[in-house]
């Protein structure tokens, strides 16, 4: 993955200055000069012993990382000065010949309350993943920054390194999450005008099935306000998306039954006794027959990886403790079912979650990332135990938001790993059929490396694709197929 650093001579610098003025104006010139002066050749595997005065977010040294030929930035952007609410981000420059001309893609993990830095950046689609001891980072051959500039945001406040000085902010929901993410983007583009006119995409998975379309809708509405800076939103893509409780819950129990994970009688008992629109997921608001049959279903499932049913589980003490914790959450009215991430990655060890937590809690790593600058009273964890997310929002449908988005001109890709049992393809295909869509290209297989990577069908306003053999976190379980899917979407090329 490492490349030789480019040699920026005086002629090259002059050329870049002139090019910057012509292409992006004075604001863009400042960003290009910052990049020329501080980024290239400083690779993360070597401590250059200084921080950039021009850009305090620049990562000049990343402990344990291999040399990398692209720039990275991380740190905080305040989204509410009065409340003292600040969100943590990690930006990774595109590893392409001209990163300034590449699109910018925001990635959001779900939960709600799980980290896009620990998930997307360091476990799934970022340029690195940790070694088993959490001491070093290894290159990811299927990183999405091979196609696009990538931006990972820990949202809402209380997730990962993001925080608020107003503790009541940790009781939150969809509306504030979308508003804060929008405020973050406006301020990010103010600080980095080089990317303000870039083609912009929003991506994510799981409960980002709420985050992604709601943020897209917020951006489109914000773009209508004359005083606002326009964000060049081009499209959105979301995987194994929690979208409609009623549909997704039924899709889950149907998937369990059709994949021989539960008995006929248990399937019938859940279907007969559960109100799927008031549970999340598959858990009712009171102890009743629904809970009884769901308990039976959980016992019949056994200790499998519900996020990738054919994968092994992590058997570390830490992983087992987390599983027990979230299992207890499922027994209460508080939503917990989407908050743990799957415990396996194709070709990676199944305990990557543990290693990410070790790495991000190292003081020298936090210093390099400009993280935890206020000395938060909690350790970094993959999924927050501080955020108290609205149960009503968890149960709400975002299909009305899709109706709005389908009337816009943005591209939409919905994708599903086909061996996820928590937000499975069965539910997604059902809610897609509730939208006003007309098929324009029939269902067909698509291939990667001469193997079927999944199946795709195109509608007039949306594309749907499965990813064969992928679990809840598609880039985590099928990285090559996920990268191919992403590249096809960004470049407007057929799968």
Our Rg estimate from Cα atoms comes to 22 Å
Order of helices and strands: HEEEHEEEEEHEHEHHHHHHEHHEHEEEHH
Overall pLDDT score: 85
- Residues in helices, as a percent range: 25-40%
**Cα-to-Cα separation, first versus last residue:** 25 Å
Please name the CATH architecture of the domain at 58-245 and 391-491.
3-Layer(aba) Sandwich
Stated plainly, the CATH topology of the domain at 58-245 and 391-491 is called Rossmann fold
Number of strands: 15
| Outline | globular
CATH class of the domain at 58-245 and 391-491: Alpha Beta
Helix- and strand-based class?
Answer: alpha/beta
**DSSP summary: helix tally:** 15
Oligomer class: single chain
Low-confidence region ranges: 1-42, 44-52, 320-346
CATH 4th-level superfamily of the domain at 58-245 and 391-491: Alpha/Beta hydrolase fold, catalytic domain
Residues in β-strands, percent: 15-25%
What can be said about the biggest beta sheet? 11 strands, mixed
In short:
By secondary structure, this protein is of the alpha/beta class. It has helices at 10-38, 117-124, 174-191, 208-223, 245-258, 264-273, 289-301, 317-330, 352-360, 363-368, 391-395, 399-406, 425-432, 474-477, 479-491, and strands spanning 72-80, 85-92, 104-108, 128-130, 137-139, 149-154, 163-164, 171-172, 200-205, 233-239, 388-389, 411-417, 439-448, 451-459, 463-467.
